[in-house]
Design brief:
Number of strands: 0
Helix content: 55-70%
Radius of gyration: 22 Å
Number of domains: 3
Number of helices: 5
Distance between the termini: 53 Å
Strand content: under 5%
Amino acid sequence: MGIEHRPEHHPQSEPPDEYQASFAAALNNLNEVEAINTVNRYKSFTVASICREDLRGILTDEEITRLCDGDMENISNRMSDAYRDSGGYWESLEIMARFVLDKEELEDTTEEGHTL
């Protein structure tokens, strides 16, 4: 028997949002393999990031200085939404995913000693 890890209870912490709660409930109904596959399927990866330097030439130095980290997070979220809602995001996603798969297939074929 392993030692069970129990997270500390923090009464001040905010409850998980509705999505997290429904996701956790769904995981409880899955067997271990299904749960691992589900978690892996929804693991997120960063597509892009922004920094204050990116705003140079768009905003004045005074305006950039006025932006707190929360403002930058807000801008980042809005940029993410705008990009994802554009047709270009989904088209680019498919193109890049297929590119990586094709490259991996080519590398696998080359490693097996096959010539093209």
